[in-house]
Amino acid sequence: MEWSYEKAGVNIDAGNEAARRIRQHLKATRNLLVRGEEGGFGGLFAFPAGEYKKPVLVASTDGVGTKLKVAFAMEKHDTVGRDLVNHCVNDILVQGAAPLFFLDYIGTGKVAPAVIEEIVSGLAAACQEAGCVLLGGETAEMPGFYQEGEYDLVGTIVGVVEEEKLLPKVEMAAGDLLYGLASSGLHTNGYTLARRIFFEVLKKEPGTYMEELGRSVGEELLIPHRSYLPVLKEVIQAGLVKGLAHLTGGGFIDNIPRVLPANRRAVVKKDSWPVPPVFQVIQEAGKVPETEMYRTFNMGIGMVCIVSPGAEAEFKRKLEAVGEKPYCLGWLEEGEKAVVFSS
Q1: How far apart are CA 195 and CA 190, in angstroms?
Q2: pTM for the full model?
Q3: Using 50, 70 and 90 to split pLDDT, how confident is the model at 33?
Q4: How many other C-beta atoms can be found within 10 angstroms of the C-beta atom of residue 17?
Q5: 314-327 pLDDT, tens per residue?
Q6: Which tens digits make up the pLDDT trace of 34-77?
Q7: CATH for 177-342, among 3.30.420.40, 3.90.650.10, 2.60.40.1080, 3.10.450.590?
Q8: 207 contacts 218 by C-beta, under 8 angstroms
Q9: Which CATH number fits domain 5-165: 3.90.190.10, 3.40.50.300, 3.30.1330.10, 3.30.43.10?
Q10: DSSP label at residue 311
Q11: Domain boundaries, the chain
């Protein structure tokens, strides 16, 4: 028997077809800073040096996690790319940075060109919305490593911020306020627990409609991770926030302290914002302790902003002008760095 790469499980032609299909999506995100053509060994991007006095590059890498399992079950792949880009945009936004370009990695057992194109269409759409170039990436076909019909999706983002506008600011004071911006759902965290409760405890199928959610389980769990760049970029540039915390893995309890000085703790009023039904369903059906809920999930708040009382009115005015309703969650006080909850 004569062996070939294809007989071993890797189809180079399918990989080339996937690359051909996604080229249009990459081109749609190009701007005047991109150099070279798609398909090179590296992406070329001319740094906008003239726009900054003391630029600082900010980079972050993340993945979509087990939310992908829901995409596999629903056979819907155009939202997970949005999840990935928006998550990464938010991660550098908390340091005050605007995105420059994005790179993705897709690992799969068998390249399905139509599926790859769906994924990349979501990546490209989110990049366009963020003013970010999808500069390149890698699609790796690895039979025997990934389950049939499954893939992993990871991305790296690079952004820039003027050094004087880096966040968080060091001068956080007792009495500074915590404002929260609503999440669009679970975003990309807590899915291992959420899937266990919906699919094993409640024994629901992805297509099962739930009155409590107002949609099917799969539709709820695939709501894309929200990007906060459109509503926060102006208040960041205006210097109206002292710090931002993206509520990802670790929820309130682990993420807010990441941006606090050693002698400040955050007091969060649990009744200060509406908790979406999906979290109530998870907590009740899984008998999940409250502390676990606030450490695993965002509970309906995707971004926390730390604002001085003197900047509060202008901060709220700017957000409300772009249709955002900020919730006053609590305040900072003296004490060991932590989050405490009040009723």
Answers
A1: 9
A2: 0.94
A3: confident
A4: 17
A5: 999 999 999 999 99
A6: 898 777 788 888 998 888 999 999 999 999 999 999 999 999 99
A7: 3.90.650.10
A8: yes
A9: 3.30.1330.10
A10: G
A11: 5-165, 177-342
